Amino acid sequence: MLKLFKEIRKAGDATTGYPFEPLDMPAGFRGKPEHNEKLCIACGACAIACPANAITMDLNDDQSYVTWDISYGRCIFCGRCQEVCPLFAIELTTDFELAVLNKADLSESCAYEVARCAVCGKPYAAAKEVDYARRVLKSVGGPAAADVGKLDECLACRRREDARAFQAQARTEGGAR
Amino acid sequence: MIENDFPASLQWRPDPVALDASVAKAKEKLLQSIKRSVYVYRVDCGGCNGCEIEIFATITAAFDAERFGIKVVPSPRHADVLLYTGAMTRAMREPALRAYQAAPDPKIVISYGACGCTGGIFHDNYCVWGGTDPILPVDVYIPGCPPSPPATIYGFACALGLLDQKLHESRHVAPAGEQAPVAFPAIPYKVRTAFEREARRMSGYYYGKQIVDEFMMALAKDKTDALAAADRLVERETDTRKKAVFMDLKALLLSKVVQE
Amino acid sequence: MVKKKAPLRVGETHVQAVRDTFPGAVLDAAWQAEDQVTVTVPKDMLPDVVEFLYYGRGGWLPNMVANDERPINGNYALYYLLSMEEGDPGFVTVRAEVDPQSMEYPSVTPRVPACVWSEREAFDLFGLRAQGLPDERRLVLPDDWPADLYPLRKDSMDYRKRPAPVTDVENYSFLYEGRAEEVTEVPMGPLHITSDEPGHFRLFVEGEEIIDADYRLFYVHRGMEKVAESRLNYDAVTFLADRICGICGNAHSVAYAEAVEHAQGIEVPVRAQYIRAILLEVERLHSHLLNLGLVCHYCGFDTGFQHFFRVREKTMDLAVLLTGARKTYGLNLIGGVRRDILDAQKVATIKYVREIRNEVEALVDMLVSTANFESRTAGVGRLDPAVARDYSPVGPCVRGSGIARDVRFDHPFDGYKYLSGMKARSHDGCDVQSRTLVRVEEFMDSLTMIEQLLDGAPAGPVLTEDWRYTPHKFALGYTEAPRGEDMHWAQVGDNQKCYRWRAKAATYSNWPILRYMFRGNTVADAAIIVGSMDPCYSCTDRVTVVDVKKKTETVLTKDQLEGYCRRRTHSPLSGTGV
Predict the structure, then answer these.
(1) pTM for the complete prediction?
(2) The NADH:ubiquinone oxidoreductase 30kDa subunit domain covers which part of the protein (chain C) (predicted)?
(3) Could you tell me what percentage of chain C is helix, strand and coil, using 3-state DSSP and rounding each to the nearest 5?
């Protein structure tokens, strides 16, 4: 019994001061993901990686905007979004105070203008992503930069064009032989 | 949202319990000013038990929710607050309803954890109905997977009107023509991404990013001799693990220099 | 005619023994990984071969996996996984194909009782019927699920299909295994208000003595295996596996990752193997402290309970330090881990480990010297080693009955391969006390292991992305979770998703023995017996007590039961009889 009292005395007051005083969360704690809308190019890598579908990307009705949306209510705080983001535009903070009275408050979104394919006119990516890719390709230089023009087309059109070019090349080569 | 994309023909949906107008009014009053201690009954509707254990941690010594008069009770008959955890599984629908009906009005319903709030990672599985709100009217949502004890305390403080809610819905539209900056323009793009990839492989996404940023910052600063900058970084570092990653990055840098 | 002697592969002696004993039975034998071999036999040979390997060759049965392989080979297949733990340790899987016309196979349960839950589950999810299975009740699916819809058949339904409930009442029938004239018709139907449990127990009693028990679990069946086959890519399933259990999720996550890695032949960097083992042990720390706290609680020693939880917070802080989260670590990827341990974290961890060791030593000393502890735990909840042998229970449950089964030592994996001077713990009291003492020793071992592993972790990467994805390969992944072995069987498909993933949690192997642990004890001991198995604790929230002589039924709440467990006076049953 004496042992017990000693232990109790040694332990002292073990209770945290929170919420009466702020709580220091250790660096690296995985709390609320913070989306940097300025950095984001709406490429959708996070939406594909998110195991819980907390992050989604959808086109609006008239297909003029693609909307990045996160539901903190569905988020499992795994940090996969942070891991896959090529621009480090999303980062898990140590913020844990997320409770809300209204479910809509769990949601944040940002809409990005869509780029349309120069050939078929269909929306194929966020304009911001196309712009970013263009600048990166230019900076890389070499054979990649030569393809900058193709950035204005959607994947389907680019494939079709490549196939046509390949065919034409095969024909000329065949003729030469 | 994916929730709305469900093929409706595939899914039967339960009718959520509707609130009687007078009860709703009484509840609103209660939510605004509970000036007394509250009794909580928790209902596990199909969680992984992570939430239950965090609730346990919240009511034991280190976080001691009883400081605020929050007490977990063994019967819904005594409860002011019903705390629903877990994605609502098919098997738990009836028991969850019984617990709800047993608690006296007005009662506050809290959805606890990602699964309780929306169904979480299980949101569209065949054997769940989603979170708590497809079945019951929910007053407070506490997100987290699981919510940590401080997050739980914060959630209760919000529910009881002691603290203000911090999170608010936000709907932004990015300005037309906004450009995303290319990081570390001084370092060739392909070299930078190779560094980033290598750092992640060596030390994971979290520390790897910190280490590679420090490395590239040093390189970007010294425009004349990148290798010397890397050497200085390695030299100065006392953390053996970080040092090893720096050295690894330096080797990569060397190979790139040789290539070009 | 003597062949040149090639070195024997792991499991080869077992395969040869099967060939010798049952000529012509082995249609095929193939190795999935160094220590894993699958032998295909005709389905009629299943009971013979499984029984032979189980009792004849020192095998234990973690579980059985059913699989719809019609798109691959036209048949369903069953995989009986056997962990060989006597000679030639490794895993031997007995596979048999079941044709889709008959949908039937001979039940192995009458020969090897450990198969009972898996064979019941195979019917729920695939509609495969085990002929001669003594217990054909529904196991996994809820009572309101349509009878002819089998969720895991490839052609049965979308993973999001939610059929309308076929009933609003719980109509599971509880079984009493006693003499015929004593069987009481157990009332069913709408239950009582106090339920909040994901499991429902029935105790069959005579007066205060429990003579049998039955339980309905799987209230939390969420359909994870199906969603892993459809919505998630195979590399995201580690995060889903983290959420199988909120206490030992990391063990599941590692087990899944290893199953895929074994199947695909992925070499995980050694540093990642060390980190995985460290995190598994951190998980054991907080889990065992939880259980020790609960033992205090059940013994009426609530001060101890609070103190164990106080110290437990340090293990949670340690988890945050190493992973960024308190519970769902989410650090596993196929090919390694997502977070390194830098020097700063290493130093801090060692400091935590020392503190925790000192504090827990003092607390355990306190617990063991409490007068109540001995009297409440010794001789209570006896698990007969013979029953244990039949049902293949795992973890501290089986190790408390003198059988030192522990995956970490039977089939060393990850960082455990590099440990020195550690062995599986066991006590042979077969009671609650033994199981508690096993946990105490394992807890202290875990601390030592963390120190050893931190010290020995080599330099190098923590992640590899260097492999070729081969469809339809399958293998086992295994870990020792705090409650016993987690066994995952995974097969990837041709679409970057799991074709079939079967996760077996530790407690899945332990539930079937609980009724034997109950028998002969009093109602006052029920809570501590369940507690000593360390299931997810909320499972005991309500117990229905049926007196087989008086034919009465009483519903006790968790609090009544726990209170009785602590006081052992004022039986909540008194006065309720006729």
Answers:
(1) 0.92
(2) 39-156
(3) 40, 20, 40
Distance CA B113, CA A99 (A): 10
pLDDT of residue B86 exceeding 80 = yes
What is the complex's ipTM, to 2 decimals?
0.93
Contact status of A80 with chain C (Cβ, < 8 Å): yes
Parse chain A into domains and list their residue ranges.
Answer: 28-116, 117-177
Q: What is the pLDDT of residue C552?
A: 54
- Residue C51 CA to residue B157 CA, distance in Å, equals 58
Q: Under an 8 A CB cutoff, do C320 and A29 touch? A: yes
User: What average pLDDT score do residues A116-137 get?
Assistant: 92
**B6: number of CA atoms within 13 Å, CB side?**
18
Give the CA distances from residue C372 to residues A7, A117, C302, C433, in Å, rounded to whole numbers and listed in that order: 19, 77, 12, 11
Specify the domain boundaries for CATH 3.40.50.12280 within chain B: 2-159
How high is the pLDDT of residue C464?
94
Nearest CA in chain B to C559: B74
Predicted confidence (pLDDT) per residue in C455-496, tens digit: 999 999 999 998 999 999 999 999 999 988 999 999 999 888
Contact check, Cβ <8 Å, A14/C310: yes
Which token pair is C307?
Answer: 């103190």
Name every chain C residue with its beta carbon within 8 A of the beta carbon of A49. Answer: 236
